[in-house]
Amino acid sequence: AHVWRGLVEEYRDRLPVTEDTPVVTLGEGGTPLVPARHLSELVRGRVLLKVEGCNPTGSFKDRGMTMAMTKAKENGAEVVICASTGNTSASAAAYATAAGIRSVVLVPDGKIAMGKLSQAVAHGATILQVDGNFDDCLNQARKLAEAYPVELVNSVNPFRIEGQKTGAFEVVDVLGDAPDIHALPVGNAGNITAYWKGYTEYAADGVAKKTPKMWGFQAAGAAPIVKGHPVDEPETVATAIRIGHPASWTGATTARDDSGGRIDAVSDEQILAAHRWLSSREGVFVEPASAAGVAGLLAAAEAGEVEAGQTIVITVTGHGLKDPQWAIDLAGEAAQPTRVQPDAVTIARAIGLDV
Ligand code: F0G
């Protein structure tokens, strides 16, 4: 059987590494493409979820981070820095530990999910909570990296995009060609930029016969690309994509325009409904932001904008355990377990069996 060696080794010939590059890996990539039975039925097509929560730190960020940390190590960096709504910091902290490099993370004021913060803490990152939002954090991280000997590992680092483009390679390698549509959430816009790079590289080399339409979805309260101007006070329950000045703005619009795709907004209600759809119907537990792509597909289906018979891949970007409070809150009363005595008949009754 083939043992997965992490995406830098698996896609070595398509990544900027040499034989001497010290690869920093935690076994990321090779994530499953899970059939979504109910979504497929709804759109009368084939919908598959690229479940990025299966990466080592529970989000797609590990794809970019293995590459960025590998290059940081190769270049002799001693400190890496990033701004983050949580997942990037968790990933940076883990990969920096694996590389023997110190990590510093700038997180926005009080808006990061506990699961993500716990990872950065556990991996020993130096965590600074900035009095501001993600965009303020990224501004400062960029300044630090310009003025001091610290390596920036946000997706403005081109090696991050290189690593993340492998998500598209994996989809094509499994399906035999690109899907008709690839949907995903958009925050800082690195991931949509990276997928598009991956798909166009494979198409240029004839590995894929076509490229998909790229469908990106922002949260309505944090939808600068949809509005066509930056948003200074972004707000959404999907804290991972609470971003008003996306760094890879032109990467995202290029992906949209060159692919014949779209970037639209979905409301918090639509995001939470999609989150619930995924957990209660498909069996896939994601964090709220990760459901934005599904929310977008549901909205498009309702508007009659999804042709039947298409293959649609949706990247669900992060694991539900990152931000589990939402599942409890959305369940309301149902989150309270029914108390029972340790007695089979009582339990049988409690679950509605005839006794
Ligand atoms: N989904 C999740 C779970 C994320 O954490 C992010 C970004 C996105 C989607 C959006 O991806 O920025 O490439 O458009 N999280 C960053 C972070 C900002 O700091 O963890 P994007």
TrEMBL record:
Cofactor field: pyridoxal 5'-phosphate
One example of a Gene Ontology biological process annotation: threonine biosynthetic process
GO molecular function, one term: pyridoxal phosphate binding
Presence of keyword Amino-acid biosynthesis: yes
Residue ranges constituting the Rhodanese domain according to the UniProt record: 79-123
Recorded catalytic activity of this chain's protein: O-phospho-L-homoserine + H2O = L-threonine + phosphate
Cross-link Isoglutamyl lysine isopeptide (Lys-Gln) (interchain with Q-Cter in protein Pup): where in chain: 143
In-chain residues carrying the UniProt-annotated modification N6-(pyridoxal phosphate)lysine: 61
UniProt entry keywords in alphabetical sequence: Amino-acid biosynthesis, Lyase, Pyridoxal phosphate, Threonine biosynthesis
Any Pfam family matching the protein: PALP
EC number: 4.2.3.1
PROSITE patterns to which the protein is assigned, alphabetical: DEHYDRATASE_SER_THR, RHODANESE_3
Family: Belongs to the threonine synthase family.
NCBIfam families: thrC
Function: Catalyzes the gamma-elimination of phosphate from L-phosphohomoserine and the beta-addition of water to produce L-threonine.
PANTHER family in the cross-refs: L-THREONINE DEHYDRATASE CATABOLIC TDCB, THREONINE DEHYDRATASE, MITOCHONDRIAL-RELATED
Protein's name according to its UniProt entry: Threonine synthase
